[in-house]
Structure formats: structure tokens, C-alpha cells
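Chain X:
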Amino acid sequence: MKAAYYDRQGPADEVLRVADLPLPHPGPDEVRVRIHVSGLNPTDLKARTGFSSAMPFGRIIPHQDGAGVIDAVGDPEDSKRIGERVWVYEAQHGRPSGTAAEYVVVPSTQAVQLPENVSFDTGASLGIPALTAHRCLFADGNLKGLNVLVHGGAGVVGTASILLAKWAGASVMATVLNAEQAAIARGVGADLVLDRQTDDVPAAVAAHTGNKGADRIVDVNVQANLDINLACLAPGGVISSYAMTNATDELTLPLLKAMVRGCVLRFVFIYSVPVEAKRRAVEDITSCLMSGAYTPHIGLKVGLDSIADAHLALESASVTGKVLIEV
């Protein structure tokens, strides 16, 4: 099979290679998926550069997310799944081979049926962004009738948060950094879009919510936004942080302000989220897909031979939206 791989960590254009590699075969409780589209995430960049850890395997086929069709199963009783359209998540977590290849083998539970009305591009855009957004939003209960504030509303987790929160019946506010990002956030359904650099975010949130504040805040940069978050937060509200810039980042918390607000501060690292929470997330994401309410913004799509270009584009932040690899 044709696959992208690296056998040492480093810059994308130096370590990523595309070659013919052996075809994998599924074992018990596994399925093999013929990948049509692979999804690229920041965690894939961090694994390649050594941000997260040293090389866990001698050779790595990267990428956690993707979409395609099951073409082989490890258990004969699962043969009815052959030909099933699926989206894949955490394909490379704890294993050497991810979705940047024509075929990938994953645990059968991590190949989720993709509704017929949903494209492979959308399927490959789920995985880490949708699961992370769901955990940030729903870990503390139902959203119907609540107010949600999403920082980084044009990012992949930001847009996933807007889409899922709107589907769940919340009023959604989003912050962005420029007009292009504002258009993306509005396009996926944000009720109020604010410029993080020029707008008075707490005042706008207060006006939009009738001084109730935001019940849930989904934050891409909690260090930069903590003071704003505490000023925007409804009593007993939740701030969910899912990203950081450096492995040594630290957060200083103003305890009095946090206590007065009854603040809950949640940190989300999708790989450590409980299995049952992911199962519920998959159910909700499927319902959202079937309703037609999940339409992610695709920022870039290239062929497998251009995988290094895709990594560099995401790493340099020169593209806004989901980055996909057509396999």
C-alpha cells in the first residue's frame, strides 16, 4: 500500500516520506479501513516534532483521524461490516500506524459508521476536533438554553464547538482575530462573533446574555484569556481548556475571583478522556451528522504526496480550517 511515514522526528519536509509499505491485516476485534481522506491535527505535528514524547516506534505512519470504507475484519462475525462507510478516530494512538496511508487497521469500536449523506471530507474532520469539543461542552451536562462562549471560533475545535453547541440548543458566542475568521465562525452558526483584539468581550457577553454570563467557555488559549473568562463566566460556569503552546506552560489562577464565580476549570486531553464519555460523544456526533447540522470548514486539501506541505501549512498557521489529505 502507499503510505506516508517518518522514522525520525524533525521538520516535515526533512522526515516525511511516501513509499509502498506492507498491507496491514486485522486481528481480533479489529477492522481494516480503506482510507479515502485523512485528517491532520496539531497533535500529529507534536508527535512528529517530539513535543509530546520521543519516538515510541521505529517507524510511524501519522494521523489519528480519517474516513473510508471497511474492507476486511478480524472476526468472521463482523463480516457484515465489510463495505461500511466509517470515520476513524485515534488510529495512531498507542500504535505505529495511522490514517496517512491507503489502509489502516484499528479497533472495531474506533471505526464509526458514517451516515450515507455525509461526505468523507466531513468524516475525516471529526475525530479529535469533534470529540474534544464534545468533552469541553457536555462533560458538565446538557446545553439546551445555555450560553456558550468559544474562543478561537474559526479553529477546528472552535468550529466543532459552535456546531455541536448550536445543535444542542445553546446560544453561542465566539471570539476571533480577524474578518476572515469572523466569516467562518458566522458561517458555522455563531450567534455573536467578537473580535478578541478590538471588542470589549465581557461587555458584549453581558449584553448578549442579559447579564447572565457564559455557562460554558471553550478556550484555545486559557493563559491569554483567563481574566476575560472570569469576567464573562456565569456563576458556577465551566471553563474548558484544550490546548497549549509549550510543554512547560503554566497557569496562575486568581483564587478570589474564581471562588466568587464558583468557577469550574476543566482541562481536556482527548486521549485520556474516559471510554464511556467518548461513547456518548460518538452517539451525539452521529445524531448531529444525521440531522445535517455538522458542516466543518475545510481550509486545505492536498494529495498524499504533498503531506509535508500540509504539515507545514498547519504548523505555520497559514491556513484556517481543517487540513485534509486525499488518499
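Chain Y:
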Amino acid sequence: MKKADVFEFYRRLAEANPSPETELEWVNPYTLLVAVALSAQATDVGVNKATRPLFARVSTPQAMLDLGEEGLREAIKTIGLFNTKAKNVIAAARILVDEHGGEVPRERAALEALPGVGRKTANVVLNVAFGEPTIAVDTHIFRVANRTGLAKGKDPLAVELKLEKVTPAPFLHGAHHWLILHGRYVCKARKPECWRCAVADLCAFRPKTPAPGDS
């Protein structure tokens, strides 16, 4: 995709949604960290349903430790892989209390050192909680970047680095959200809804999906 087309691609997404936000519900950096960790192989809707009552009573690492692994398992049992996730969240809470004074660190390496926290989760926390211009490549962003020609890559890290390189500075902070939302609601996995896509004419995907009822 040409440089001018990349700028226009983001400009249109930004025009349609000037202030994009994560669809995960959170109240502070710690609850965001937990929510993102729980969202692996789960939907934001499903995570929110479980964390809404949880975060009403647990919003710090110490409170999570006080709840305990068994209590957390009960709270998140509707989320996939809840046993493993509960174990990781409790282990991470212990590290946050013991090594970081109960605060979520702003450094990628420190975040990735936490159990259950990979590069994608760290990027979301850095972007959403701390305003860093990071791009967390999930399945939606990976698909949109490759399908449209915006940033082709064979793995999430390659796409992330390419996106950071080609995304114009004014759009870096919101890029993560615009691309996820576009992939979730328009550029869908099985059948992209090209007929209502704001950037269809800039996109490399062929053939375009016709509107229902069109030949």
C-alpha cells in the first residue's frame, strides 16, 4: 500500500471513530492487565460478563491475593482456560505486590515477566493504560493487515513491526483500536463486508465481497 493510501486508510477510520477505545471493561491499570490476560482465546463480551462483578470487589493485586486462586476460579469459570488463567493471575499478583509495590509497571520487559502476560497483553496495557503508541497484534489485526496489504507479515511480530513502521505518527496511538474494531465488525474472518467498508477502494483484497442480494 502506498504511503498516501496508508494515511488515507487511517484518516477514514479515524473520521468514523475519532476516539476509539478497547471494548474490555476496566477501572485501573491492574484490572486492565487482568482483563486482557483473561481475554486470550475468549471474547471481550464473555470476559466483561465475568469481570464486571469481580472488579467491583477486586481492583488491586493485594485484593486478588486475598480472594485467592479458588475464589478467582469461581469468578471466571465461564471463561475458557479459567484454571490456567486463575493460576497465572494469582502468580502475577504476587509478583506485583512483592516486586512492584502493588503497581503495574510501565516497562514492557517487566510486564512480559509476569505469568500469563505475553507481548500482545503488554502492548495493550502500555497503549490503553499508559498512552504508549504500541500496536497489539491479535487475530483481527493480523488478518486486516495482511488482507488489505497495509502490513503483510508471516507472524504477529512481523506485522507489529511493519505496522509501527508504516503507520503515520498522528494515528499510532489509535491504530490498535481502529484495526481491531474494523476486523471485528467489517473485515470479518469468513466473509469481509466489503460493500460497507470505508477503505474498500484502498484495499488489496480481491474479489470484493458483494452486498447481500447483489450478483
